[in-house]
Write a structure and sequence with these properties.
316 residues, eight-stranded mixed sheet, single chain, alpha/beta
């Protein structure tokens, strides 16, 4: 269509609470700014909810009733249960799904996306399945041979969906793609800062979930704010050390962006890794049971990241 000529098409890979929340922001920005193709395709892992397909419910009610209930999505966000169909014409791929599923998703995308497409990962985790620690953005880049930026910050999905003011950090190795992604994400209540220090931004997003697990244990054991503050401070130091040990060009000021200490604060007080970890101590149930009970089956990133980093450090 003539009106779409030269405009980039966006696909979101993932539709959990954060996937739905960021799709809402993207959809609203696209409608208001007119810089992108209006339609946003959001890949939905198909599930049956109350006897109906989740994708059909989303497209009819414009609401993800399972993972982000009570929040209306703009009508230009379209749920698509076929991964290839959702992404084949996209210029920009937004990855927002549990990091343990990235390899499988990329295998399905190989040869089925545009050659000049680029991506942004909102996935907070690292991969140790191939030996060593690998950033999710590097996994995607290696699998699909595309440029991958990252977006990390102190962003509780339900709060962002209520338009509460917050910030996020965009780590972009490409200045051109960074500007495009800034236009896609930035809103009056969702403030974006941009840095080229993408590796540090992503490390912060992964390690903060480990710190949140420890904070949840503190709460479950009945310790007060002083203990949790100590855990957060020590966690920040370990985050800085980890980043410097594995990646070159780490900038210390990146840890003071939203992706760094701000995200530690948010997730150690309001995040689901903290909530589930607290319940793990008090309820005597497994993490898997608590994921089903508290998160509708969504996967936590903190426990898995803890295991992977621990194994890597033990092998050094």
């Amino acid at each position: 269509m003539a009106e779409s000529q030269g405009k980039k098409r966006v696909a979101v890979i993932g539709s959990g609470n954060w996937g739905s929340g960021i799709s809402r922001i993207i959809g609203l920005n696209i409608l208001e700014k007119g810089k992108f193709v209006n339609e946003v395709l959001m890949w939905v892992f198909e599930e049956i909810v109350d006897g109906r397909k989740l994708s059909e419910i989303i497209n009819e009610k414009h609401e993800n009733v399972k993972y982000l209930p009570g929040v209306k999505l703009p009508e230009n966000v379209i749920a698509v249960p076929d991964l290839v169909e959702a992404t084949k014409d996209a210029d920009i791929l937004i990855f927002v799904l549990p990091h343990q599923f990235v390899a499988k998703v990329c295998d399905q995308l190989k040869g089925n996306i545009k050659k000049d497409a680029f991506a942004c990962s909102l996935i907070k985790g690292v991969d140790a399945s191939q030996g060593g620690i690998q950033l999710v953005s590097h996994m995607i880049h290696k699998a699909l041979d595309i440029d991958v930026s990252v977006l990390m910050g102190a962003n509780i999905a339900s709060e962002v969906a209520r338009d509460e003011f917050c910030e996020s950090t965009l780590g972009a190795r490409s200045e051109v793609n960074g500007q495009i992604l800034y236009d896609l994400f930035h809103r009056h209540h969702f403030r974006i800062s941009v840095t080229k220090d993408a590796a540090t931004v992503e490390v912060c997003g992964a390690i903060k979930n480990i710190i949140a697990v420890a904070a949840g244990f503190c709460d479950g054991l009945g310790y007060g704010s002083s203990t949790k503050a100590a855990v957060m401070r020590i966690g920040l130091l370990e985050m800085c050390k980890f980043a410097g040990q594995y990646y070159k060009g780490v900038r210390m000021d990146t840890f003071l962006e939203s992706c760094g200490f701000s995200d530690i604060i948010a997730t150690c007080y309001g995040g689901r890794n903290r909530r589930v970890s607290e319940k793990f101590v008090t309820a005597g149930k497994s993490i898997e049971e608590l994921e089903q009970e508290m998160l509708n089956g969504q996967k936590l990133q903190g426990p898995l990241a803890t295991l992977e980093v621990h194994e890597q450090e033990n092998n050094q």
